[in-house]
Design brief:
Length: 637
């Protein structure tokens, strides 16, 4: 039991009980609706449906909903259930390693034999194994070994992730009139607002989302007669003041730039305790103040204004703080939003700085996230010599690096490198709104990336072979992937849930395409066929035959009436997507890699191609074929 004691970080059962007691208990009527929800039932009953993501704004009742789900799932004796409630005020209870330790702990409590997997790692280094800089790796191994144990036939894992409430210390720092209050007086004041607010472990919460909505929609004029826009600007200004007072280099006295974030221990008192909210949301409050075009916040966005002065003095310290708080992605979002606010100010020194600051965090965010003090070492050292950030913080560069690397004068075209796949990447595609990227890998996974932050938001697993191609539906709600395992999978692009697996090809699937209305899906295969599927039911409605080699690419025309396919037999075919009749066979001088339609009409430009059929179309589309040699074939239809 000694190793279980050292594994312990919290008992999630106690956390759940505390939450229920604080919020006045659980009403079945508040959560029973989800038990009849199609997605929940599919998650509970379908072995292929392995992920259910419940999301909503802070205060919407997600935590209580999860408590209800836990109660219901605990009634099913066949299931092993482990859960974890993240807590913003405790660093150990909001970290990835903390979550794993909690999940492992609860599984062992239910099935003590699983402790053998912990002992294999624990016996070598005892308690340090779970506290060290490298704790994530052994914890992951333990967790995966436990999940693969034959005794665990059906395991459900539930994680309640973080909202961002305000702590008592943050409230005092943000509201100038509260600076003279001691904490006991402030607690008493908050207690008198019990119909709206509650205080737990120094953190202030709305008792319910409806209380927040009432105060904002019905009572805001009485509470903030100057208007919410003015209040946003006040909070923004106070946030800059709080950060200017709090942020400095090496706030946790780490000293060594190589110390990993996993090895950082929060000091007591925490120098960032009062600045946490400000670090996260100062740009959001500025944006809300600017949205109504009031004059006061716009003055803050001038050269040498408050924003310019703050960033010029504190930008690197702010990045260090975000790393210590585990929120580097918030910095990327903030700089992107700030750059958007400065649209129309091109050529100003502030605009140039903000644009450079965004490039800086995109380029070095991963290093700073992993080791906070790298903001002053590798980040500065490997930034372009003309980088505004590097020039402004030149004094922070390490003096012990005598031979500095040769770096380009300016930032290059590469905004960011996305890392995470274990095998080669075969295909990438943007979502229609440009906010997400999907990548398909030889390792058999598809990863979803947030373009704004470069953060991997989901890894889609389920294919039994490499994934050759991936495509979004036009509405961005679904994703289709084509794999070496001869299947096509359709995914919910928001939750990562596998909605359907399409089987029917006799060899690997090379390409996949949605029709513009999202009702049909076409797949091209090494078995020399193209298949058309009903994207809702997963039924194969037609098989198109005629190619004499692997079909590399397939695409629908913009009007959905035509389908084009390209093959290694140096043939492109145009099909009627309804009757599946072959309308034209186009002989290409080299192997075609990709094929697409374009609404613009061009002449035939490939000297080694000829059409052996005709494919008239009312909208004047053209088909464009890109070949291995880099040549391009434009064919009028």
């Amino acid at each position: 039991m000694r190793c279980l004691k050292h594994l312990y970080v919290t008992d999630p059962r106690d956390d759940k009980q505390r939450i229920l007691e604080t919020k006045g208990g659980l009403l079945k009527g508040s959560y029973c609706w989800i038990l009849k929800n199609d997605r929940f039932q599919r998650f509970r009953d379908d072995p292929q449906s392995r992920l259910l993501w419940i999301k909503g704004d802070p205060g919407k009742g997600k935590t209580m909903l999860l408590c209800g789900i836990i109660d219901e799932l605990e009634k099913e004796s066949a299931k092993r259930l482990s859960y974890f409630f993240c807590q913003a005020t405790e660093a150990q209870l909001s970290s990835a390693t903390g979550v794993l330790r909690g999940l492992i702990y609860l599984l062992i409590i239910q099935q003590p034999s699983l402790i053998s997997y912990v002992r294999t790692k624990y016996d070598t280094q005892e308690e340090k194994r779970f506290e060290s800089i490298n704790a994530w790796a052994p914890l992951t191994d333990i967790f995966m070994d436990m999940l693969n144990d034959p005794a665990l036939e059906d395991v459900v894992l539930i994680i309640d992730a973080l909202d961002d409430p305000v702590t008592l210390k943050e409230l005092i720092s943000l509201v100038e009139s509260l600076e003279e209050f001691d904490q006991d007086e402030l607690k008493e004041t908050i207690g008198s607002c019990g119909s709206f607010l509650t205080l737990r472990k120094g953190v202030i919460y709305f008792v319910h989302q409806s209380a927040k909505e009432y105060l904002l929609d019905k009572a805001s004029n009485q509470i903030v007669p100057s208007g919410t826009t003015d209040q946003h600007h006040t909070i923004f200004s106070r946030s800059l003041l709080v950060m200017s007072r709090s942020l400095r280099r090496d706030m946790y006295d780490l000293h060594h730039p190589g110390i990993s974030i996993d090895d950082v221990r929060q000091p007591d008192p925490n120098p960032l305790a009062s600045a946490r909210y400000s670090c996260f949301y100062w740009v959001d409050h500025l944006s809300a103040a600017v949205s109504d075009r009031t004059l006061m916040p716009i003055d803050d966005l001038q050269d040498d204004g408050t924003v310019h002065q703050f960033l010029s003095k504190k930008y690197l310290y702010w990045l260090e703080a975000l790393s210590l708080l585990g929120r580097i992605p918030k910095g990327v979002v903030a700089m992107t939003k700030l750059e958007t606010l400065l649209n129309g100010s091109e050529g100003t020194r502030l605009f140039d700085f903000v644009r450079d600051a965004r490039r800086f965090i995109l380029a070095h965010g991963r290093a700073i996230r992993n080791a906070p003090l790298q903001a002053y070492v590798s980040a500065l050292t490997f930034s372009p010599r003309r980088s505004v950030t590097r020039r402004l913080f030149k004094e922070e560069e390490p003096s012990w690096i005598l031979a500095k690397p040769t770096i380009a004068e300016n930032w290059d075209a590469c905004l960011e490198t996305l890392e995470g796949h274990d095998g080669g990447v075969n295909w990438v595609v943007f979502s229609p709104d440009g906010q997400r990227l999907a990548s398909a890998s030889r390792e058999g996974t598809v990863k979803m990336w947030d373009i704004g932050t470069g953060h991997c938001t989901a890894t889609l697993e389920g294919h039994g072979g490499g994934v050759h191609s991936v495509v979004f539906s036009l509405d961005g709600q679904r994703l289709a992937s084509a794999s070496h395992d001869t299947t096509v999978k359709i995914w919910d692009a928001t939750t990562g849930h596998c909605m359907a697996t399409l089987r029917g090809h006799d060899d690997e699937v090379c390409s996949v395409a949605f029709s513009l209305d999202g009702q049909r899906l076409a797949s091209a295969s090494r078995d020399r066929t193209v298949k058309i599927w009903d994207a809702t039911t997963g039924e194969c409605t037609a098989t198109l035959e005629g190619h004499h080699g692997c079909v590399n690419s397939v695409v629908f025309s913009p009007d959905g009436q035509r389908l084009a396919s390209a093959s290694i037999d140096r043939i492109a075919k145009i099909w009627d997507a309804t009757t599946v009749q072959c309308l034209a066979t186009l002989v290409i001088g080299s192997v075609a890699d990709t094929i697409r339609f374009d609404k613009t009409v061009y002449n035939l430009t490939h000297a080694n191609a000829k059409a052996t059929g005709s494919a008239p179309t009312a909208n004047g589309s053209r088909i464009e074929v890109e070949t291995c040699s880099g040549s391009r074939l434009n064919i009028v239809q």
